[in-house]
Fold:
Amino acid sequence: MWFTENPWPPIVILVTLAVVLAGIWTQNQRSVFLLGVLGLLAGAIAVFVIERQVVTESERVEANIRAMVDAAVRGNVDGVLAFISPQENSLRRLVSFGLELVDVEEDARVTDESVRMTTGGTQAISQFRVNATINLKNPPHRGHHPSRWEMTWRRVGKDWKVFEIRRLNPVTGEEMQVMDHRE
Structure:
């Protein structure tokens, strides 16, 4: 487990300390402070490089969210269903039915992602927004629609699978019916 999801706070701290030591060094020219500056800057670079190498479980879930949305944009129902647990037949049918009713355009954007790990890292609850232009097939309708979702994921082997999907009101966060057209 990596100590941070975001490398920037520790990098900013290390660079700030380096600037402070550089200021001290300019006043007394002691080489120990210059070595400290170089060490802190090297540490900041190391944090950045290591963070790029380490992929946490919540980052895997976030990547799955984006891959699911990309599959929906491509109209790849099987690609979306690959992220849903095979045991969740009713959920799989609902998702298939929903994707048959609409086309999601290329402007789909995932924002406000948050992933909370639970039950010892074997379950995750994700919340995110998707803003996209949706083409309803019958009756024909096209419009830009915001949506907000909460998904419960469970780790199955090395993969993360969705076991529950809740549609949330984009403004209030209250649960909505998945197939409800009223926002």
Q: What stands out?
A: The chain has a mean pLDDT of 91. The chain has five helices and six strands. Residues 31-53 form the longest helix (23 residues). The longest strand covers residues 141-156.
